[in-house]
Amino acid sequence: MKNMGWAKGVRITSGVVWNLFLLFLIFGLTLGVFATSVGAGYFASLVAKEPLRSKTEMRNAIFNYEETSEIYFANDIYLGKVNSDIERKQTTLKDVSPFVIDAVLATEDEYFETHNGVVPKAIFRGLFQDVTNSSSQTGGSTLTQQLIKNQILTNEVSYERKAKEILLAMRIEHFMDKEEILEAYLNIIPYGRNALGQNIAGIETAAEGIFGKSAKNLNLPQAAYIAGIPQAPFAYTPFLSSYYGGGLKNEENIKPGIDRMKTVLFRMKETGYITEKQYEEAINYDITKDFREKTLRATERYPYLTQEIQERTKDILAEMLAEKDGIDMERYENEDKIKGKYKILAEREMRTGGYRIYSTIDKTLYDEMNKVAEEFEYYGFTYTREEKDLSTGEVVLKDDPVQVGAIMIENNTGRILSFVGGRDHQLTNVNHATQAFRQNGSSMKPLLVYAPAIEYGVIGAGSPVVDVKFDIKVGKDDWSPSNYYADLENGIIPARKALSESLNLPTARLYKEIIDKRPAEFLKKMHFTKLHSEDYVNYSTSYGGMKIGVSVEENTNAFATFANGGKFIQSYIIDRIEDMNGNIVYQHEVKPVDVFSPETAYIITDMLRDVVKPGGTGQQVPGFMNFKTDLAAKTGTTNGYGDAWLVGYNPNVSLGLWFGYKDHTRKLYTRGTGQMHPTTRTTMLFSRLLNKANEVKPEIIGADNSFKQPEAVVSKPFCAISGLAPSEACSNAGLIRSDLFNSKVMLPTEPDDSIINASYVSVKGSRYMALPSTPSEFIVPGGTGVSQSFIDRMLGSWGGDASKLFPSSSVFSSGVVSGAEFPADDVAPAGVSASIEGSNLVWTESSSNDIIGYYVFQNNTKIATVFDGSANSISVGPGTYHVKAVDITGLLSEASNSVTVASPEPPAPPTKPDEDKEDDKTEPTPPGNDGGDDGDETGNNGNNGNNGEGNNGNNGNDGSKGNNGNNGSKGNNGNKKPPSGNDDDD
Questions:
Q1: 824 with 888: CB under 8 angstroms?
Q2: What distance in Å separates the CA atoms of residue 233 and residue 800, rounded to the nearest whole number?
Q3: pLDDT tens-digit profile of 430-487?
Q4: How many whole angstroms separate alpha carbon 824 and alpha carbon 950?
Q5: Is the dihedral of CA 808, 811, 816, 818 positive or negative?
Q6: Model pTM?
Q7: Which residues make beta-bridge pairs with 248?
Q8: Is residue 187 a contact partner of residue 202, using CB atoms and an 8 Å limit?
Q9: How far apart are CA 591 and CA 414, in angstroms?
Q10: To 10 degrees, what angle do helices 220-228 and 98-108 make?
């Protein structure tokens, strides 16, 4: 057959196939060796930096779960264990039900008894699923690997961590027997939540937390239920989180855990751990009747406090661990991945390290201040909001009450003595004293504007600032801020008044003068952690418009800088940390930072004293307090009343308080609704907190202490409207004031040059300098005026209405009567319309904007001059009348329509004389008395007052006391002009 043709073809084909097989075999082996080499090399690179741990090191790390850290109040008063994040109780393998062990091995690690730490096929399966992004992720970790991940490494998802996990799992198998590994695993693995909603770990904690019994007493269904939880702890746990108050989930959301229990039971049956009969009985068991009911415990009294202490402890330990590993602190702060890694390690260290953590919190102060906050009855309205239940997926209604954050700091040490974290920790676990960042409103003003301006030598305590509106372009937007009362413009006022009354306009103008010096750097020095680049350049930051915001702790800590003579001392709550052997591993150190000079600190403190005096925004505080102390304070609200602040300090302590809703769009107050104003609410609670603190800890409050004035802070006289040194003209005008200055950086030495002699007229209630053509009868002569250069200097580049520099409400209005030149035109004013109402001639207001008054004509003869601000009416007798408007240039409007008052009919003669008596006689009317109302000499609307000398006083404007006085003194034709220096528009 070899000689047949087909046989030859077979030989050739088979030879080719064989050669190809050998070729592919060699190629495959070569590729396999290459891939294996590459894989081994890559694996080696991943674990290259993993230190070679000794047997002792690895065993200590694995068994490092026996000690739970403890926390303390100040003065070493025991508070409780660190258990708010996770609960764990150690047990031994002999005290665990055999059902639990069988269930764990059947579901988590079928080859536990035979493998050497890893199962290769499981690893390759997991790697393939990861590379192909498979929707089915079965995992490939043995019990040993899970133990390594939880006790030595972290939960980060990376090939590096996985490679280290494999290496260490194989290594630990040489240092520990299987029973030790299984016992350690059962003590560290997470098991979801207990009935209180707390996270739990360890089989003993799970048994007690879920079923209320020891692990050794668990029956088969209970053991299977618990063994199934670690695959998805929060999906399979039967309880809600503490955020929702703990307790059982609804039936629908408990079902996944029960289904998982049945899967575990099926695997136990398939692997031979239980019989078919046991399986059937177990899957028909009603496990829900065994779930533990929710209970309360003592440590729930301090949820905000334990949470805060633990978070700060983790921060401290994380930095310590990073430094120990040689991590640069700048890199640690800027790289979230590195910080996250060490935060995980720190939490494990805190939870399992057996530390004793000593805080600064005074137990009595904390208890009493939180009781005051809890009993406060004027927080305001509680809204509701829709929120998705993360456990059930349902949309539920949650309360949204006014939240509160308060904190008390010891000034010279930075110790946080007490705080109020919120109103309901179960409703929201955010500590509103330390973790909530909100815009701080006007409480920003002394920190960012007034103190820096004093530090730079721009102002003293009483230096003049300008409270006049402006409208400018900021980028593409118009910006025209206003004060709390939108129409209020006080003109030139002392800086201390602007601060005590919390006025926005002078604050913004002052900030404009110093913003190029970047005063926000002061905030950075005082540890405002959320400063944004925009906060350095935005003008609105001057009254609290930060992009992100500030916490109550940061805001209060900044004010304590003033109490400390300008030195910032970082607030803190962890005093020291000791290890289980009593060795101090951390001790807080006070490190003062120079921010402001002692002189600036004292001057701003003196200015803030005025806030709690009559006229200040916090003037209610003393009325609510039951003791006296040297108190400086600042209030603040934000746009729409979303936030309300009050921060105050005496020489010993600083107390900060904030109100607001979780929903930033909610308003604390709407004008006109009759609600209590937010500032009233904050002052009331602030005072109650301070009263209680002084009652229980008077030695801490130190009510009798007072701030000491530095030698370089001096009181000097100056011209109050310019801030310059007194001049003779300023003195003659009665404008000399004295206030505090820092003599090291600023004293008023340059003579004042702002005063000139001037006359003025009133236009629409505002004062302007009289023009040469202004009719003399409208001019108030001999006033104290100011120069145009002064006006330009005070208004600055932002400008404004110069006539508002000295309004009638100004503290200088009695001394300065001339403010600006009116931009007059050559157009005659618009006319008016006249009419008769009873015995009064009345007319409408002219629509022109330059009217200084009106002339009244009778039978084409001028009979009266009516000034701007007076009533547009006079009492008249028979005749024909019309009215003309007069503008500041002296131009007259067209005459109004004419109106006529007819003469009365003469009385009829008597019909029959009485012969028995003398003829009736009518007494003549005395000269000057025709029955008109006498003018009120105080200037209160005396109309047609006859002066008793025969001259009818029509609509005379006395103004001796500023209130539209009509012929208030013996007027000639009732046209007496107000005396110099008095504003008849008030």
A1: yes
A2: 66
A3: 999 999 999 999 999 999 999 999 999 999 999 999 999 999 988 888 999 999 989 9
A4: 39
A5: negative
A6: 0.67
A7: 239
A8: yes
A9: 10
A10: 40
